[in-house]
Sequence to fold (325 residues):
Amino acid sequence: MQLQMHDPLLRLLDRYQRDFPLQSAPFALLAAECGLPEPTLLLRLQQARASGLLSRIGAVFAPNSVGASTLAALAVPPERLDEVAAQVSRQPEVNHNYARDHHYNLWFVLTAASRAGIDAALAQIAADTGLAPLDLPLQREYHIDLGFALGDDGPSRRPTRTPAAPPLDAADRRLVAALGDGLALLPCPFLPLAAASGLAEAEVRQRLQAWVDGGVIRRFGFVLRHHELGFRANAMCVWQVPAGERDAIGARLATDPAVTLCYARPPRGEAWPYNLFCMIHARDAATVHGEAQRLSQAHGLAAMPQAVLVSTRRYTQRGARYHPE
Fold:
């Protein structure tokens, strides 16, 4: 689905990657804003979702706020990569699964209601594949958002807040589970969430607003797929930095406009000595490599052990499921 910047739908997708209106009939409001009839807007959103441009409309939760998560990797024999990737993607806890150009060549993110759920999923993956996962839970976040600014009115970089994990009652857990696939493309999209969670529709919106205000929901809005937007290359850049300098370097690195994600994860001995991570997304591989080299030079990292893991294939990209339905 090709959209030009003058297209009212693309401007809308850009503007509401966060701050989606938590009102009973939000699509009527958005339709009026972009000058389309509401049925036309809903149809075009359905087309954007079918084409893969729009992943979902919903919540991006702050890491480890309503559940647990980790980044994991496998060193897969090349001839088994597609087979193992399919086994990993079948695991319900896995929401992102990418091949990368490295000895550890399959990288995936898992989310669950608790760390015990993560451990069980990793154990199942090890049993299914016969391979030992590298488990790299988040230690510190410096910038995690992944909203792409497509124009002048797109999402701006905002300071990262790390909220305390909120107490969740049974209705909250049902609501988090129901949010996994995002909002339904209906005139009143919060009604299905109300039915799934056992709450009144107004209470659903109130709880979501409270989570947004408290930073538990990092952003609520259109979740777009970077590849379909034209950002066809991405790389995970990693460095082995002295532990005492890690946070200061990470905080500086996170302010660089080229950095879409930046965080600290634990090293794992000689097999994986790196403790500082960032993601770069660009329109081509040459730009990714150039930006990776520039980041190392600009932030005093050139002499430190490092690696650039370029993504070679996307196997899975879907919304996180923290609580099973």
